[in-house]
Amino acid sequence: MMELLSKEKIREIIAKRAAKEFKDGDVVTLGIGLPTEVTKYIPPSTKVMFQSENGLLGVGKNQDIDNIDERVINAGGGYVETVEGACFYDSQMAFILMRGGHIDATVLGALQVDSEGNLANWSVPNKFTPGMGGAMDLVVGAKKVIVVMEHTSKGQIKIVEKCNLPLTASCEVNLIITEKCVFRVLKNSDGTPDGLLLEEINPMFTVDDIKKTTGCDFKISEKLVEMEV
């Protein structure tokens, strides 16, 4: 089924679904790449304030290429506008916000995520990486951690039983959204991991398709519903 979906459509499906996770008044930090696409699908009635870890609360749309203000960038170095009520601050304040539990949700990409909600999204062995940046602070500090990614990459399974890449954080992921499905990471009453629950499925795929391209066992919700595609 994968060949029926273009790269652009895959990104749209994932970003559109992730946008449904926010409520009015949320402060949200988006990772670099695919997570930034989420802003396109926020309903006009839902007022979300986007935070950038380089010191901007109130990130707006990308700047008009013909009228660039090079002083206003997001954490990925992209030129962005600000929304009404935006404010700028230094790196220390940015990390106080992230580490202090003031971020309602963060949306990040991943190299791997596993059945315990462990996240690996910053380093591949034998490849140069300047560092994980603020990802570890975001994942530990945010109230909700949403991973958005393609279900597989170049045939490699990304949702695994146990991450074998360097971890960004342990047992912090709450939701995994791919073009094929939505998994919720379950927790026991004592906070320990309890595996993955399949809650939504793209109607272009079957549960067997999901099983074949997921590297761990998972439960299936009794209220399994179709994703909007």
Structure overview:
The longest helix has 12 residues, at 7-18. This protein has helices at 7-18, 91-99, 135-141, 207-212; strands spanning 27-30, 49-52, 56-62, 80-88, 105-108, 112-114, 119-120, 145-148, 152-153, 156-157, 159-160, 175-177, 181-187, 193-201, 219-226. The protein is globular. The strands form three sheets. It has a ten-stranded mixed β-sheet with strand order 4-3-2-1-5-8-12-13-14-15, sandwiched between helices. It has a three-stranded mixed β-sheet with strand order 7-6-11, with no helix packed on it. The chain has a two-stranded antiparallel sheet with strand order 9-10. Helix 2 packs parallel to helix 3 (135-141). The protein is α/β, with parallel strands linked by helices. The model has no long low-confidence stretch (mean pLDDT 93).
Structure summarized in a few sentences:
This protein has 229 residues and is α/β, with parallel strands linked by helices. It has helices at residues 7-18, 91-99, 135-141, 207-212; strands spanning 27-30, 49-52, 56-62, 80-88, 105-108, 112-114, 119-120, 145-148, 152-153, 156-157, 159-160, 175-177, 181-187, 193-201, 219-226.
List keywords for this structure.
single chain; 229 residues; alpha/beta; ten-stranded mixed sheet; three-stranded mixed sheet; 4 helices; 15 strands
